[in-house]
Amino acid sequence: MRWMLPLLFTLGTPAFAQDPPVSEPQVVSQRAWTAITAGLTLQVDDRAEALDAAVALAESHGGWFAELGTDRVSLRVPTEAARAVVESLRDTGDLVHRTFDSSDLSAKAVDLESRLRARRDVLARYEAVLDTASPKAIVSVERQITSVVAEIEGIEGQLRVLRDQSDHARIDVSLRFRERRAPNRDGSSSFAWLNTMNVADMLRQFEWGQRASKSGASVPTPDGFAAWKKRGRYQAVSPDEVLFRVRTASNKPTADLGYWRDALQNRMSDAGYMVLSETDIQASGHPGVLLELGAANGEQDQTYLVAVFVSGRKLVIAEATAEATRMRARQDAVVTAISGMQIR
User: Fold this and answer.
1) High-pLDDT (> 70) share of the chain, %
2) Which residue among 218, 229, 269, 280 is least packed, with the fewest CB closer than 10 Å?
């Protein structure tokens, strides 16, 4: 017999200083043990949109997001797809910084697999001892088995971590807001009222409680808004801070809608606004033009709706503005209210 534990247990002496001898560990499994980690820092216009695109890209390659914040996301993707995902992510913004590293985990994996085989061999031998151990010795053997099982579980856990690291690359994406110039507050138009068309002044006037000038129309309040009406003046605000007001300006020089449409577009473009759409609109039989404009407001994308109607010697101007996603939810209600105005 190679060792005398059965005899010792039979005699009631559970003393042994070392684990039972083990056979030589077998050759460990052959597989790729390479961990890929990558990092990108990108400048983008819309961080929420960029985060959604990054998560969708990972999922399209069989991956997922492990962590998600307002300006960062940690992706896990199959290792073989890592380079393709990183290259695709670069196209979602301006690249500021990029890292791509690989680590060889094979030495650690070989060591863990060898230890695991050895511990399992020891466990099998301890379990075999129970068949011949005396009642008194069984307690000691079970204690040793419990210890070996805990070691096996710990090694298996470490191997699971290594397998996950080698099977799925980690890609950390950090987003910075792309610096953009806010539109000019003052315009260069020779028409005074056009130079008053800007988001910054509208936001400031609402914040300071300044009341709009006379509206020149009877204005229905958009659904979900609270309105202030007094002496022909009108303005309204929604709970999520979408601002809406109607005011008038002199039709000087006297011109038709087509003239003012072109003048408005030129002035807003020159001031730095992006014309997102232009549509015809009517209110109480008066034809008008509705522009949807985009602007940078700090780190926010701001939407600015402007509708202009010609009514004899005056122009009726309806304006609404808010952060782009909030405006999107309220835009239909605002446009409905503009169309429902009774221009005097």
Assistant:
1) 89
2) 280
At residue 85, φ and ψ (nearest 5 deg) are -65, -45
Phi, psi of 12 (to 5 degrees): 85, 20
The CB density around residue 81, as the number of other CB atoms within 10 Å, is 20
CA distances from 118 to 86, 92, 106, 166, 336 (A): 40, 50, 18, 24, 77
Q: Estimate the crossing angle of helix 135-167 against helix 106-129, to 10 degrees.
A: 160
Give the 3-state secondary structure of residue 37.
strand
Structure token digits, residue 30: 């052959």
Which residues lie closer than 8 Å to 94 by C-beta, 6 or more apart?
42, 43, 44, 178
Tokens encoding 91:
């196209």
pLDDT-wise least confident of 60-64, 130-134, 318-322: 130-134
Total-model pTM: 0.54
DSSP 233-299: EEEEE-TT--EEEEEEEE--S---HHHHHHHHHHHHHHHT-EEEEEEEEEETTEEEEEEEEEEEETT
- 25, 130, 16: which is closest to 3 by C-alpha? 16
Spatial separation of the C-alpha atoms in residues 185 and 81, rounded to whole Å: 48
Please check whether residue 125 is in contact with residue 117, taking contact to mean a CB–CB distance below 8 angstroms.
no
Residues 6+ apart with CB under 8 A from 68: 51, 55, 74
Cα angle 44, 202, 207; round to 5:
95
Could you count the other beta carbons within 10 Å of the beta carbon of residue 131? 7
Token duo for residue 257: 């809608």
Report pLDDT digits (tens) over 40-64.
999 887 888 899 999 999 999 999 9
- List all residues 6 or more positions away from 219 whose beta carbon is below 8 Å from its beta carbon: 227, 229, 234, 246, 318, 337, 340, 341
Strand-pair category, 243-250 with 233-237: antiparallel
Q: How many CB atoms lie within 10 A of CB 150?
A: 11
The pLDDT tens digits for 235-276 are 999 999 999 999 999 999 999 999 999 999 999 988 888 888
Residue 7 burial class via C-beta count within 10 angstroms: exposed 0-12, middle 13-18, buried 19 and up: exposed
